[in-house]
Amino acid sequence: MSGVALTSLLLGLTTGTAFAQETGGLGEPHPWQMGLQEAATPVMDYIVWFHGYVMWFIVPITLFVMALLLYVIFRFNKNANPVPSKVTHNTLIEIIWTVGPILVLVLIALPSFKLLYFEEVIPKADLTIKATASQWSWDYEYPDNGDFTFTSTMRRDEDKVKAEGKPWLLAVDNEMVVPVNKTVVVQVTATDVIHAFSVNSFGVKIDAIPGRLNETWFKATREGWYYGQCSQLCGHDHAFMPISVHVVSQEDFDKWAASKKSALNGDSQNKVASAAAIVQ
């Protein structure tokens, strides 16, 4: 955070949202990216705003403390001040440096509580998906659309992935597909070790813990491809466990769900066709 804050300051103290839109990109990271990824959900919109809001406190306080340290170093060194002061306290200053930080913390805490409430209180779902993490893949189950399940793993055909314009090490063979402007509740668990389901542009990150079912949610407001990764060290292939979410129209989602259910037909879940071949 602090590195991003300093960068924001040097680039003109732009707001968090504007800064993210200029440098963050939508759905995936980009070379030399310094800001947050561009928001694609209401939660991420608030996260980006809150980040910029907090920086208006952190940056001035950092500069003030640095200036104060420099002043003390040069004003009260042995050469400039050979006779040291014997003042031991100052009531006004002590009140200021006690009350001031309290006010700053209150101003930061109030919107942070709102953000936590926004993230943790799950609204009524239009679609529920169960994401089960394993070393090193994701199983996605759609109980509301025929109760089918399929496995998503990272694609290994680097040349073909790049030729398709998809990000290498983030593209998968079977992506999660969701409709735009719908509340999607994701139930997250794991089969072996602790993993984490994380999609940056959605403002989503939640641990996948064996024997426990965690919940998160998002409402994507823009169609497109969004990428994330497992964000907990889960073994030697931790870096090769991406998450790919394809946000489409409701009509295209219905077609995709019907084709997925038909493709399963009681067969192995790994034989389900990629959504890219169905939703163009």
Automatic annotation (TrEMBL):
<keyword id="KW-0186">Copper</keyword>
<dbReference type="InterPro" id="IPR014222">
    <property type="entry name" value="Cyt_c_oxidase_su2"/>
</dbReference>
<dbReference type="InterPro" id="IPR002429">
    <property type="entry name" value="CcO_II-like_C"/>
</dbReference>
<dbReference type="InterPro" id="IPR036257">
    <property type="entry name" value="Cyt_c_oxidase_su2_TM_sf"/>
</dbReference>
<dbReference type="InterPro" id="IPR008972">
    <property type="entry name" value="Cupredoxin"/>
</dbReference>
<dbReference type="InterPro" id="IPR001505">
    <property type="entry name" value="Copper_CuA"/>
</dbReference>
<keyword id="KW-0249">Electron transport</keyword>
<comment type="function">
    <text>Subunits I and II form the functional core of the enzyme complex. Electrons originating in cytochrome c are transferred via heme a and Cu(A) to the binuclear center formed by heme a3 and Cu(B).</text>
</comment>
<dbReference type="InterPro" id="IPR011759">
    <property type="entry name" value="Cyt_c_oxidase_su2_TM_dom"/>
</dbReference>
<feature type="domain" description="Cytochrome oxidase subunit II copper A binding">
    <location>
        <begin position="124"/>
        <end position="259"/>
    </location>
</feature>
<keyword id="KW-0472">Membrane</keyword>
<keyword id="KW-0732">Signal</keyword>
<dbReference type="Pfam" id="PF02790">
    <property type="entry name" value="COX2_TM"/>
</dbReference>
<keyword id="KW-0479">Metal-binding</keyword>
<keyword id="KW-0812">Transmembrane</keyword>
<protein>
    <recommendedName>
        <fullName>Cytochrome c oxidase subunit 2</fullName>
        <ecNumber>7.1.1.9</ecNumber>
    </recommendedName>
</protein>
<keyword id="KW-0679">Respiratory chain</keyword>
<feature type="transmembrane region" description="Helical">
    <location>
        <begin position="53"/>
        <end position="74"/>
    </location>
</feature>
<feature type="signal peptide">
    <location>
        <begin position="1"/>
        <end position="20"/>
    </location>
</feature>
<dbReference type="Pfam" id="PF00116">
    <property type="entry name" value="COX2"/>
</dbReference>
<keyword id="KW-1278">Translocase</keyword>
<dbReference type="InterPro" id="IPR045187">
    <property type="entry name" value="CcO_II"/>
</dbReference>
<keyword id="KW-0813">Transport</keyword>
<feature type="domain" description="Cytochrome oxidase subunit II transmembrane region profile">
    <location>
        <begin position="28"/>
        <end position="123"/>
    </location>
</feature>
<keyword id="KW-1133">Transmembrane helix</keyword>
<comment type="similarity">
    <text>Belongs to the cytochrome c oxidase subunit 2 family.</text>
</comment>
<feature type="transmembrane region" description="Helical">
    <location>
        <begin position="95"/>
        <end position="117"/>
    </location>
</feature>
